[in-house]
Amino acid sequence: MRISTECVGCGQCVVFCPSEAISVWGKASISDNCTQCGVCIQYCPLGAIREEEA
Amino acid sequence: MKALIIGGGLGGLLTATRLVKAGHRVEVFERLALIGGRFINLDYKGYTLTSGALHMIPHGSRGPLASMLRQVGADVKIVPSSPPATLRIPDNGSFRDMSFEKFSSPLSLTDKLKLFYLTTKSRFVKPGDESFKDWFFPFIKDTWLIKFANAYCGWALSMRCDEIPAREVLAIIDNMRRYGGPGVPMGGCGAIINALEQVILSGGGIIHTNSQVDQILIVDGRAVGVEAGGGTILGDVVISDIGHQATAQLYDHPGSDEFREYMASLESIKPSAGIKISLGANRPLIEHSGILLTPYARRVNGINEVTNIDPSLAPPGKHLVMSHQAIQSDDIQSEIELGLKDLEDIFHKEDYEVLMVQTYRNGWPVNRAGSGSDLGNTTPIRGLYIVGDGAKGKGGIEVEGVALGVENTIGLLQNFKTNYTT
Q1: Is A46 left (phi over 0), alpha (psi -120 to 50) or beta?
Q2: Which of B43, B333, B358 sits opposite A10 (nearest CB)?
Q3: Touching check for A33 and chain B: CB below 8 Å?
């Protein structure tokens, strides 16, 4: 998953990530625990999380 | 009448409940997988954090939001905070807490009299567009009053006292007298969303999630439907909970002067930005269930500990403490650092864990329209109304303003229905 510059750091994605891969500090960042499941995408109010480009 | 509601935040859901209760057909379109906007409970490490709000209703069980919840039969218990608020003042390397009602006690006798004169006068001569600071500071040059006003405006509105119009603050003070201080909803802010959802569904209303509205359909200057999820849904009115600006991006703009003026007026809307820091503690950090205002902190404006009213918002034996600060600069990292330093000072030697730091700004702010810059609930498009934090009612703090805006919109819809629908 990739976080765009639209992210403001509201933290909503953090609690829905099943792999505890997201932390937030002014902006969200995604760790290597990410399994690319994409669950976070539907919880971001700004559409700031996108699939990694292949 | 059939109403289509864009956005399932508090404003959209309150509007939906009012309309369902009045016998209208309602469909709510929420683009995310869950409803509630910035009023959702977020379960994290056994604590109930939120997507925005601080589990506190500004005027508790007596305010506009609580009245509306009662009116629609939403089953929520709001427990009054006691005391409503205290002020933490540094005192010889330690601190002391002062009652909110005695905020003027550090002022000189002359300044107290001037403040009394100013407030009394304002009941007869309404202030113009000057800021709250410009309303009192030319007469009362007192830095304590500035600090106090900034803590209060920062906590309640995410603004400084030189950013908010005096008329809005005075309207808020009137509402405090009328409705009283804050309260905590049992089960947190999410309990309110759940109760509203139940009222909507049991009244035959429909709530779509993962359903983004791509377009508002306009025919002859009137909103007649929406495009959502690849389909067209027709209705008699469209009510948007996503603010004036975002709503205006969803339809073709008419070429009229009235519409150009409307678009120009949108420029005056200023969102408010803030940072919430949630702490988990092993013992109470605040000894009461009200607001601890912190006028002497660098950034933090106020803190609450809602587990003093509803212990279920934290794991057994633990406490949930939430601080709020208005954002003062573009350097978000240092704004956060300063907030955390404040908390270290305020809770010196206390044992707590920082659960999460959440920032609200730009496209997802504290308020889409900072208090005093709200534009009202109508648009130049007939049958298109705006509710929510981008169209609050006068003198309404946060969700109280949302409820006041919804109340106003319901009145407008009543007229609209009489004139335009069968």
Answers
A1: alpha
A2: B358
A3: no
* Tokens read off for A23: 């932390």
Closest partner residue to B42 (CB to CB) among A9, A12, A27 is: A12
Q: Express each pLDDT in B266-294 by its tens digit.
A: 999 999 999 999 999 999 999 899 999 99
- Do A9 and B332 make contact, defined as CB atoms within 8 angstroms? yes
Q: Which of B339, B345, B344, B342 is nearest to B357 (CA)?
A: B339
Taking the C-alpha atoms of residue B117 and residue B122, their distance in angstroms, rounded to an integer, is: 9
Which sign does the torsion angle of CA B105, B107, B110, B113 carry?
negative
Spans of chain B below 70 pLDDT: 421-422
The contact set of B with A (CB < 8 A) is 32-34, 37, 40, 42-44, 49, 51-52, 210, 332-333, 335-336, 356-364
A17: left (phi over 0), alpha (psi -120 to 50) or beta: beta
Say if the Cβ atoms of B356 and A8 lie within 8 Å: no
Angle at alpha carbon of residue B67, lines to B63 and B68, rounded to 5°: 120
Helices B10-21 and B64-72, interaxial angle, to 10°?
A: 40
pTM value > 0.90: yes
C-alpha B371/C-alpha B132 separation (Å) is 12
Predicted confidence (pLDDT) per residue in B68-91, tens digit: 999 999 999 999 999 999 999 988
Three-state SS for B165?
strand
- Separation of CA B355 from chain center: 22
* Residues found in chain B: 422
Helix (H, G, I), strand (E, B) or coil at B16: helix
Q: What are phi and psi of B73, to 5 degrees?
A: 75, 30
Residue among B74, B158, B200 at smallest CA distance from B401:
B158
For every residue of B246-313, DSSP letters joined together read HHHTTSPPP--HHHHHHHHHGGG---B-EEEEEEEESS-SSSSSSEEE-TTSSS--EEE-GGGT-GGG
